Structure prediction request, 190 residues.
Amino acid sequence: MTEAIRSFIAVLLSENLRASLAEEVDRLRRVAPRIGWVRPENLHLTLKFLGHIPPTTLERVELGLAQAVADQQRLALTFAGLGAFPSVDRPRVIWAGVTEGAERLVDLQTRVEAVLAGRDIPKEDRPFHAHLTLGRVKDPRQAMSLRSTLRARADVPFGRLDVSAIHLMRSDLHPEGARYTILRAFPLGA
Prediction:
């Protein structure tokens, strides 16, 4: 029996955008050092988390992703503003937002979900919100110092990203944090 692979589907970032967001994470870390901040090399925009899936399911995912992106055009995204889920007053996930291009990104994610559901890959229960996770709050008391910073930086620009592909990623958990590996790229409109 072959081992299941922990995987997800993502939009990867340019080096410039990653550097801009890493600077923001450094700024936030000074305000709230005990938050689980995402390492710069791990910053990405998740379209769908797949979890642990066997290789046979991974093959279905690959076929579905190729189908889902075949008629999709490249898209341009603008990243700006900080926020939190479920709210700035009760932050559990700290994020950078997607402003321009968010509707097209939602359309792409919806297409991916629909095509994969047709291949017996379960749909996500929660609605998709276009965002990029910067940190996760383990103890809400540690995030109290972030409230004013998040409000003050609700519109700060981070940069643009031209998206020409989505990626099937592998996630391996290690004591020092997750390591991500690209399993396959799926060019938009290929």
Notes: The mean pLDDT is 94. The CA atoms of residues 33 and 171 lie 25 Å apart. DSSP finds four helices and nine strands in the chain.
